[in-house]
Amino acid sequence: MSVAEATLTALIGREVYTTEGMFVGEVEDLRIDTEDRSVTGLALTEVRRSDVIDDPAATRDGVLLPYRVVRDVGDVILIHDVL
Questions:
Q1: pLDDT tens per residue across span 11-24
Q2: Count of domains observed in the chain
């Protein structure tokens, strides 16, 4: 496993919060563009529908967040408000 792969797999299971501290969900999987070798989305479970994710399709079963909304990655993942 390369360093990049290890870093990517470390995202799995991380909790996702807004910059305001609101819990959004937990990363279950990643969407990756294999050509560009970049992450393009985060597949979340345990999604909390809110003002951040106001999508009728967003259920506790999951939602795919575009990676462009990610503001910071550390012990948790911080995202910009999506609306």
A1: 999 999 999 888 88
A2: 1
